[in-house]
Amino acid sequence: MITFLHKHGRPNLVLFVHGFTGGIETWRNSSGKLFHELLTEDPALLDNYDFAYFEYYTKFTNLFPAANTWVSRLKMLVGRSHRKVEKNVGISEISEMFRSQLRFQVGSYANVVLIAHSMGGLVVKNALAQDLSRHAPTQVRMMLSLAVPHLGANLATFAKLLSSNEHLADLAPLSDFCSGLNDRWLKLANRPPIKYFYGTYDDVVTKASATGTDNIEQDIIACDDDHLSIVKPLDSSSIAITATRAFLADFLHATKIPDGGKLLKLKSDAELADEYFVLKLMLADVHVSTIRHCKENFLNAEYTRKLFSSRTDQEKLAQLYERIRTLYHDSFDKFINSKSPKKTPGELVAEIHEKIVHQDDGYLKSALPVIHALHKKGMLHQLANDLEGDVWWSEEKSVEALDKLKNLIEDSSTPA
C-alpha cells in the first residue's frame, strides 16, 4: 500500500520503501520526525517533490514452525473471516505488488526517486529488473540504497534456522535470490543509477554487501550510523539527509529543460559557424538546411551534457557516446566501400540520424532523464567536433582543409 504524506501535484515523487519487519515507523526518529520531514525543511524540495511511503506485510513469525502445525491450521480454518489473512511471502512476490502499486497508484508522475532501506532495496531492485528486462516503461529515475544487503545479510543465515520466514531465506548470503538478482541487474544497460549508503557501525549488513557489485563506478556514501539509525537521522545535519538532499537537488537540475520545456533554437545562421563539426559538414558539401538542423541538435546536446555531473551519469553518457559512434562507423564503412549508386555525404548524415531515431528506445535507450533522440543526434555532432576523433562525412579527412575553411569564415565575419 502506498500512503502519501505530502501530495500537491508535483511532477516528481520520492517514494520510501522499508525493510524486513518494518513499516512507516522505520523512518521516524526519536523526536517523532519522519525522514521526509527533515528533507522538506529545504523549501526547494517541498516545491518540486511529493512524498509517499510504500508498506507491505513483513513480520518475524513462524518460530519453530514444525511444532503444533496441525493445531494452528485448524484454528485458522475455524476462525476464518472475510478479512484477508496477511502472511509473509517471498521478496519476488512483494516486488510484484510493488510493480502494481507503482503502475496504478503513482503512474501519473513523470519521475520517481526511490529511497529504500535494507530488504526494501531488494524489493524495488527486483521490480525494476522485471520491468526493464521486458522493456516496459518506468518512471523510476534514481534509487537511493540505504544499508541494502545486495549480497545478503549474515544475520539472516542464523535467523532462518529458527524461522521459516521466506524473507530470511531470500536475504541469506549466497542465496539464489540475491545472486540471481545481481546477475540480471548487471545485464541491464538502461538501469537507473543507484546511490549506495552504508552504516559504518552496521552489524547486520556489511559494507561489502551494502555497496554491492556493479560494472560502472559506484557512488558510495559512508554514514556514521548502524543499520537502523541510518533511516532515523536525528536532524537535518546528518549525512543521510544532506546527501539525499544533494542528490534530489541534482536530479531537479538534470531534469530542468530551458525556456519552459522548449528546445533551444539558433539565434542566427552564423551561430556555431566556426565549430569543427560544421566545417566537416561544409567540407563534405552537405546542404545548408541539413547543417542548420545539425547545429540545433548540437546546441541542445551541449546544454544537456552540462546537466550531468555525477560520476555515474558521466559513465552512462560515455557508454551512450560509444554506441552512437558504433552506429556511425557501421554506416560510414558501407558508405566508403559501396559501389554505384554511391550515397552523398548529406544522405549519409540523414541515414545515421534515422538510425538514431529508430534506436532511441532500443540500442540507444538511456536511463538518463531528458536525453532523447534529438539530443542523441546532437551527440553525434559532438563526436564530430573533436578533431582527434574519427567522425567525418567524406573520404577526405584533412585538418588543414578545415583550418583553411575556418580562417575564411573568420575573415568574412571580421568588420572591414
From TrEMBL:
Gene Ontology CC, one term: membrane
Signal peptide: none
Residue ranges occupied by any GPI inositol-deacylase PGAP1-like alpha/beta domain in the UniProt entry: 14-168
Keywords, alphabetical: Endoplasmic reticulum, Hydrolase, Membrane
InterPro entries per record: AB_hydrolase_fold, ABC-3C_CTD8, PGAP1-ab_dom-like, SERAC1
ABC-three component systems C-terminal domain location: 270-396
Localisation per UniProt entry: Endoplasmic reticulum; Membrane
Pfam families noted in UniProt: CTD8 (PF20284), PGAP1 (PF07819)
GO molecular function: hydrolase activity, acting on ester bonds
Listed name of the protein: Alpha/beta hydrolase
UniProt source species: Massilia horti
Upper classification of the organism: Bacteria, Pseudomonadati, Pseudomonadota, Betaproteobacteria, Burkholderiales
